[in-house]
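Q: what does this look like with zinc ion bound?
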Amino acid sequence: MIWRTRRDSLNQLDQDIRDHMDRETEDNIARGMAPDAAYAAALTGLALGVKVSTAPLALIVLVDGVSARLVPLLADGAGEAVTLEGEVHGRHRQGGWHLLAQSRYQRHIQEQRGHHFDAFAAALTELVDELGVERIVLAGSPRAVAVFRSHLDRRIGRMVAGAIAGAAHEPVDVLVERVIELLDRRRAEEEVAEVQEAVVEAAKGGAATAGVEATLDAAARGAVRRLYLLKTFHEDGRRCSVCGAIQPGGSGDCRVCGGDTQPLELGEALVERVVATGGSVDMVEEPWLGRVEGVAALLRYPV
Ligand SMILES: [Zn+2]
């Protein structure tokens, strides 16, 4: 009796797992993953006991007058594309219409196009929320992109990271390449803005530092929230064997306590210290960070 109950409950568990896998897989496909990847993600999620986050890095929206193609950009490339197609009536031009008829027709088509953009924008708003999308990249002719953009509400408009040239006949891979370039450029711009913010804030005596000494001091206090270090940064430093203080210069006694020191690379020591105290590090290529000795930081509080 007990055995049978157990087997029944195992069968039930088996069924539950299958149902769960089906649901998760369908969800993942709906989020734009290819079926194989969707199943694999569901399986991983099951194994880890968590729902694997499948929010796309960005949603690419290729628009023209009659259709919108949506391509989710996932961590491992393009997800499955979905094309939304509107119906455009009155494409026939036979019958020798004169100019007036022609202009009516044009107006009609333009109205239709307007409605399609409204419909695409409404669909996009819903999809963005359902997929957890935070970035949108528009693609198409400059004109189609501009018109479509004007149909987006402000919240969705703010998610638009930019626009790329694109045509419906172009392979998805080509579009994806352009989008990745654009997102990299945006990321670099954001990085510049963050570094500038840190340097300005440091100059005002706020919760930021610029330069080696000030940043070392803040790091020693565990106050660094985010460290910006020039990728090419390399400077001799030393650590005191007695008090642990990190300081510039590869040799000499500790300037704090006079103890013996060990040589080290200052950038590496700084990164270690910041990470150990719960801060994050951004290795940047921003050349003008060189003007503040190649290092700046945003702090948790002014020091
Ligand atoms: Zn010392």
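The pocket of zinc ion is lined by residues 240, 242-243, 245, 254, 256-257, 259 (CB under 6 Å). The chain has eight helices and 13 strands.
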